């Protein structure tokens, strides 16, 4: 392998290849994370949709399947975040990733225990802020990415962030092959992070019928909506999403309350705990009360499709890259193909000079 493909990020995280599988709720469980890490990338368990016990089970299962480094994606505003951090430290998990940056004190606690901290950022100023707090790396997601996303395309955001900080940066949003990895490295990144590409693999637990639904979409079949949880959210365009976009405030409120009851039943949280977590979300993320209430929609709407297989009544987060993916390989094959194509692309570039 070309030496430039073994980047600073590989050294920091102890991984063979500079490829991260992102922490997708209801998707990135022990099986997917273990497969990614075993194949030489960095697998990440999505903990936001797990209770503390379920997270502990998932960590144990990954460790049973591979001795390679892996990570856990946490919500910094979770009401039991201290217990979750303690679990990561106790189990010697290599990486804690965050969709929204944790406070400086939490970063220090993790780092002091030897856990690498990797928040996601969608703006240069956010990267500068967390870098000053001592994080080990950032995932820089451009507008093409699935789930919560910002307005700046990866091709503009990634070089800005790489110029602004001196820690490893993973590019996210629009990556799926070896050419993209080389492009990210050329911008100054230390690797790439992918969600949709790993969702569409054999080890992903998403029902096969839902995977086929993804494979039939084009690059124009996603939409950024605020009607799921009040924040910009890139999802597959479906009849339900179109209905949400047209819905009135009163209809949205009724749906939100129904989903809040569903999530309470599923998670086992008390109303007091959910209210406490909601206040933490508002304070930590600068959200309005309406956005906090709408956030109750997200877990249940995603679960309906990604776990239960109901594409007609659920929501499916997806990057625009869905339109250029046409197969369901193993995770190992995805990583092997990316690295082989990256090597071949470098060779072609060298031959052209």
Q: What is CATH's topology name of the largest domain?
A: TIM Barrel
Q: Note poorly predicted spans.
A: none
H/E topology pattern: HEHEHEHEHEHEEHEHEHHEEHHHHHH
| The CATH homologous superfamily of the largest domain | Aldolase class I
The overall pLDDT, averaged over residues, is 90
Task: Describe this structure as you would to a colleague.
- This protein has 353 residues and is of the alpha/beta class.
- It folds into 2 domains: 3-207 and 326-352, TIM Barrel (Alpha-Beta Barrel); 218-317, no CATH class.
- It is 48% helix and 12% strand.
- The strands form 2 sheets. It has an 8-stranded parallel beta sheet.
- A hairpin with a 7-residue loop joins strand 10 (222-225) and strand 11 (233-236).
- Helix 2 (30-38) runs parallel beside helix 3 (52-65) and helix 6 (124-132) packs parallel to helix 7.
- The longest helix has 22 residues, at 331-352.
Q: Any descriptors?
A:
eight-stranded parallel sheet, three-stranded antiparallel sheet, 353 residues
């Amino acid at each position: 392998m070309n030496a430039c493909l073994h980047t600073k990020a590989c050294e920091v995280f102890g991984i063979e290849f500079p490829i991260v599988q992102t922490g997708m709720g209801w998707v990135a469980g022990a099986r997917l994370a273990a497969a990614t890490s075993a194949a030489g990338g960095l697998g990440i368990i999505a903990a936001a949709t797990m209770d503390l016990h379920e997270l502990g089970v998932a960590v144990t299962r990954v460790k049973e399947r591979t001795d390679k480094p892996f990570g856990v994606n946490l919500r910094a505003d979770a009401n039991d975040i201290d217990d979750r951090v303690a679990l990561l430290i106790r189990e010697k998990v290599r990486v804690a990733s965050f969709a929204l940056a944790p406070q400086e004190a939490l970063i220090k606690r993790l780092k002091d225990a030897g856990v690498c901290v990797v928040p996601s950022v969608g703006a240069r100023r956010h990267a500068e802020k967390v870098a000053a707090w001592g994080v080990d790396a950032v995932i820089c997601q451009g507008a093409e990415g699935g789930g919560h996303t910002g307005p700046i395309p990866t091709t503009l955001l990634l070089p800005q962030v790489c110029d602004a900080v001196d820690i490893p940066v993973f590019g996210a949003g629009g990556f799926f092959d070896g050419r993209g990895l080389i492009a990210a490295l050329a911008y100054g990144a230390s690797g790439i992070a992918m969600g949709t590409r790993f969702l569409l693999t054999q080890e992903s637990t998403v029902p096969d019928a839902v995977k086929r639904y993804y494979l039939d979409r084009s690059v124009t079949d996603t939409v950024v909506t605020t009607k799921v949880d009040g924040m910009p959210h890139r999802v597959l365009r479906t009849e339900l999403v179109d209905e949400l976009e047209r819905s009135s405030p009163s209809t949205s409120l009724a749906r939100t309350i129904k989903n809040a009851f569903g999530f309470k039943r599923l998670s086992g949280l008390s109303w007091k705990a959910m209210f406490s977590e909601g206040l933490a979300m508002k304070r930590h993320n600068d959200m309005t009360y309406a956005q906090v209430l709408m956030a109750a929609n997200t877990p249940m709407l995603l679960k309906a499709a990604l776990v239960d297989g109901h594409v007609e009544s659920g929501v499916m987060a997806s990057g625009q890259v869905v339109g250029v993916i046409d197969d369901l390989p193993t995770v190992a094959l995805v990583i092997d193909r990316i690295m082989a194509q990256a090597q071949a692309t470098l060779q072609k570039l060298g031959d052209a000079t």
